[in-house]
Write a structure and sequence with these properties.
The chain is of the alpha+beta class. It has helices at about 5-20, 75-85, 95-100, 135-145, 165-185, 195-205; strands spanning about 30-35, 35-40, 55-60, 65, 90-95, 125, 150, 155-160. It has a single domain, classed as Class II aldolase/adducin N-terminal domain (L-fuculose-1-phosphate Aldolase). Strand 1 and strand 2 (about 35-40) form a beta hairpin. The longest helix has 24 residues, at about 165-185. It is globular and about 50 Å long.
Length: about 220
C-alpha cells in the first residue's frame, strides 16, 4: 500500500523536529505504524529534501520496500511498535539538552511535575549500546517499560506516542525538562516532589491536562 498521507505526515514531523530545535541535520529518525508494519525515515537523507517516495516501508516480518535503506535504528522502531500497541509513532531525537544529560547517563528525577508527561515519576536513561544494534533496542525497551520517553545513554531521546502531534509535543517537553535540569545542577540541588505529589499530578493528567487533546 502507498500510505501517501502517512508518508507526508512523517516528513512533516521530522522537518519540524529540526525546526523547533530538538534535532539537527540528518540525525534522529521517525516511524509511524501502518497495516502489517510501519513507515520509517531512510538512512542519511536530508529531511528538507525528502519526498513521499523516499520513505521506507517495513513489515513486522522484516520485509523492506523502498528505494533507500531504512534508518540504522529500525530495530528499536520495530521492537517498540510490536511490544507497545499503544504506540503509533516513534521519534528519536538528538537535541542539545537531551544529549547533554544522556552523555552523563542521568535519570531525570521528579524535580518538576511535568516529568509525569512521560508516564512515570522519572525519565529513565537506557544503558549504552552501539547505535543500530539489537542490544540498544533491548536496552531501550527496558527503559521504556511503563513510559513514553527515555534517554539513550551517550546518544539521545526516544519517544513513543499515539500520534505525531503528541509525540512532537512530548519530545519538545522532554528537551525543555533536560535543559531545565541541567541548569538546576549548575546552581544547586533540586527539591524533588514526593510520590504523593506526583500521584496527584498523574491523576490530573488522567483527566486530560498536559498533552494535546486530539490525535492530529
Amino acid at each position: 500500500m502507498n500510505h501517501l498521507q502517512q508518508r507526508k505526515e512523517l516528513i512533516s514531523a521530522v522537518r519540524r523536529m529540526n525546526k523547533i530545535g530538538i534535532n539537527h541535520g540528518t540525525s534522529g529518525n521517525a516511524s509511524v505504524r501502518v497495516d502489517g508494519g510501519y513507515l520509517i525515515t531512510p538512512s542519511g537523507l536530508a529531511y528538507e529534501e525528502l519526498e513521499p517516495a523516499d520513505i521506507v516501508e517495513m513489515s513486522f516480518d522484516g520485509e523492506v520496500s523502498g528505494r533507500w535503506n531504512p534508518s540504522s535504528e529500525w530495530r528499536f522502531h520495530h521492537d517498540l511498535l510490536v511490544a507497545r500497541p499503544d504506540f503509533n509513532v516513534i521519534l528519536h531525537t538528538h537535541g542539545k539538552a537531551v544529549m547533554t544529560l544522556a552523555c552523563q547517563r542521568i535519570e531525570l528525577p521528579p524535580f518538576h511535575y511535568m516529568i509525569a508527561v512521560a508516564g512515570g515519576n522519572t525519565i529513565r536513561c537506557a544503558d549504552y549500546a552501539t547505535y543500530g544494534t539489537q542490544e540498544l533496542s533491548d536496552n531501550a525497551l527496558l527503559a521504556m517499560q511503563d513510559r513514553k520517553a527515555c534517554l539513550l545513554a551517550n546518544h539521545g531521546l526516544l519517544v513513543g506516542e499515539t500520534s505525531f502531534k503528541r509525540a512532537l509535543s512530548l519530545a519538545e517537553e522532554v528537551e525543555t525538562l533536560c535543559d531545565t535540569y541541567w541548569r538546576i545542577l549548575q546552581t544547586g540541588t533540586p527539591v524533588l516532589l514526593t510520590e504523593t505529589q506526583m500521584a496527584e499530578v498523574h491523576a490530573q493528567f488522567a483527566k486530560g491536562y498536559g498533552m494535546p487533546q486530539k490525535d492530529e
